[in-house]
Amino acid sequence: MKKLTTTLAILLMASPALFAADMSYTGVVSDSMCGAKHSTASADAAKCVKKCAMGGSDLALVSNGKVYTLKGNKDKMMAYAGKDVKVMGTADGDTINVTSIKAAK
């Protein structure tokens, strides 16, 4: 029993992300190079984000003045470049591991 308790304690301390729940974030899909420059959704923002992302820049979310790097299915997220979105995922510092993305209402 002691061995099981010790193992569980180690798992809980070593990897709290295993138990993290998805959170909701709203903002505009930008890219890591331009960041908060694309804090407002527009056709110009979409064009720039797509160009930068195709050049290797990570996609990002500008939410309440903060820029988060988005990790996940880049092809799916590209459809929302420069647009207002609602993202579900887990945050790890300034990175959101995206589980879903959709247009914001």
Throw out a few tags for this protein.
105 residues; alpha+beta; OB fold (Dihydrolipoamide Acetyltransferase, E2P); five-stranded mixed β-barrel; 3 helices; elongated
Structure explained in plain terms:
- It is a single chain.
- 29% of the residues lie in helices and 36% in strands.
- It has three helices and five strands.
- A hairpin with a 2-residue loop joins strand 2 and strand 3 (66-71).
- The mean pLDDT is 89.
- By secondary structure, it is of the alpha+beta class.
- The protein has a five-stranded mixed barrel.
- The longest helix is centred in the first third of the chain and has 13 residues, at 2-14.
Helical segment tally?
3
Q: Strand-residue fraction?
A: 35-45%
Residue-averaged pLDDT, rounded?
89
Provide the structure class. alpha+beta
Describe the sheet with the most strands.
Answer: 5 strands, mixed, barrel
User: Any idea what the shape is?
Assistant: elongated
Distance between the termini: 51 Å
Query: How helix-rich are the residues, as a percent range?
Result: 25-40%
Strand ordering within the main sheet: 1-2-3-5-4
Task: List low-pLDDT spans.
Answer: none
CATH architecture: Beta Barrel
At a glance:
The protein is of the alpha+beta class and 105 residues long. It has three helices and five strands, in the order αβαββαββ.
